[in-house]
Every structure is written in C-alpha cells, then in structure tokens.
Amino acid sequence: MDIDSQRASAEEALNQLRKSIQAFSGKDAKFSDCDRQIQAVKNAIDSYRLEMRALPAEDMGKHRAQLKGLEDGLKQCRTQLDWKRLDAQTARGADALTGVADDGPVTLEQATAIAEHTQKESKASLSRSLGLVVKAEQIGIATLEKMHEQEETFDRIAEDMEDIKANIQRSRKLVGQIARSAAGDRCIQCLCVLITIAVLIMITLAITNKDGGQFKVLDPVRQK
User: What is the pLDDT of residues 83-92, one digit of tens each?
Assistant: First the structure.
C-alpha cells in the first residue's frame, strides 16, 4: 500500500470514529466499540507515519501537515468520547438514586450510602473534568507552539526572499557592467582593425606609387 492509500485509510477510519461518537446518546452507549475504533485510527496513523520515512525531502512538508491534522482529529475524538462517557456515568448514578427513593422511605443507612455514593461520584467526576481540562490545556499549548514554529518559519522564508531579491538586483547590475565592458572592448577592437586596414592601404599605395608622393615612404620601399 502506497503512502496516499495509507493516508486515505487513516482519514476513512477517523471519519468512521467521528460518526460513531456523534451517534452516541444516553447512558447505554457502547464505548468499547469506540475504543476499538480509536485503536484502529491510531494504527492507521502509525502506518502512515512509517510510510513517510521513505519520502524525499521535497514531499515531506505536505504529508507532515496532513499527519498533524489526523493526530489533532484523533485527540478531539478522544476528548469528545471522554465527555460522553462522563455524561453516561452521571446519568447512571442519577438513575440509581431515583431507584432507591422509589422503594419507600429512606433510612439513615440508605441516606448515608447515597451521600457517600454521591460524594464518590462527584470526586470521580471532578477528577475526570480536571483531567480533560489538563488535556485540553496541553493540546492548546502544543497548538500555540506549532503556530509559533510556523511563524518563525514564515519569517525565515521572508528573509530568504529578501536575500534572493537583493542577489537578483546585484546580478542585474553585474550583468549590465559586463555588457557595457564587452561593448567598449568591441569598439576598441573595431578601431584597431580599422587603423590596421588604413595603414595597410597606405603602405600598398606607397609601394605601387599610386599615392602621388603624398605619403612619406622611403625610396627603397617605392622602388620595390
């Protein structure tokens, strides 16, 4: 299975988990099914992460962002499931208290048992709530750290872009100077060629005595 198939499989498992959690209602929800689906999503994400190790560096960035989205989605599903589990336990505790009250007058022992049960449930509920708050805080901190890293990355990209622009400008100036220098060299070369041709013409005319004696050339040269 290639990496795109692994990603699609993880997304499909995560979507099925979300649907299952949304379908939960009341105290009779079957949380064991959801726990199995969570494990399946985790396994799919782990397989996707393993496939990413063989990717080239230029393709890694896109898949890292997709992997982060899958991991965040799994965390959200776990949090929602914990809240629904807490609601179900609270509903079952309320039903238990209602059943005791319906059996007849409450004795002192029953009242004490009810109070102790309520206190235990309250402590357990408070502990779970604190755990969820801590987990949410950790998710928030991790998200802020990720945003800070992305902000630093964007700043570095902006700096690199400025450096690239400056290098392009310097390159343009250098190319212009080289072009002007080359143009000046060609003019000098052309001038030297013209002077050489003129000298050769003058010598040729003097040798052939066609200059009318205007060029001061030695007689031995003319006699040749």
Answer: 777 777 766 6
